[in-house]
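Design a sequence for this backbone.
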């Protein structure tokens, strides 16, 4: 897992899978989007207005819990 933060636009990206993927994006709120790989697995999570969600702290551990996240069909089925 890799977390990238861009302070110029206050956006964070949490990359859960390494590699290059063609992704499908599902926006779950105004500020949060989930990127899915062709197999339906989560590749990453984009967080806009990131300071609001992550706050300025140094984390030794970061716990993410995706609640009620519904998988999407990436094959159109």
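Sequence:
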């Amino acid at each position: 897992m890799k977390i990238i933060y861009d302070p110029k636009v206050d956006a964070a990206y949490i990359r859960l899978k390494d590699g290059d993927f063609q992704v499908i994006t599902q926006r779950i709120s105004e500020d949060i989007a989930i990127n899915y790989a062709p197999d339906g697995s989560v590749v990453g999570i984009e967080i806009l207005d990131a300071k609001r969600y992550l706050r300025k702290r140094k984390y030794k551990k970061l716990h993410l819990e995706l609640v009620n996240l519904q998988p999407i069909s990436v094959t159109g089925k």
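The two ends are 29 Å apart (CA to CA).
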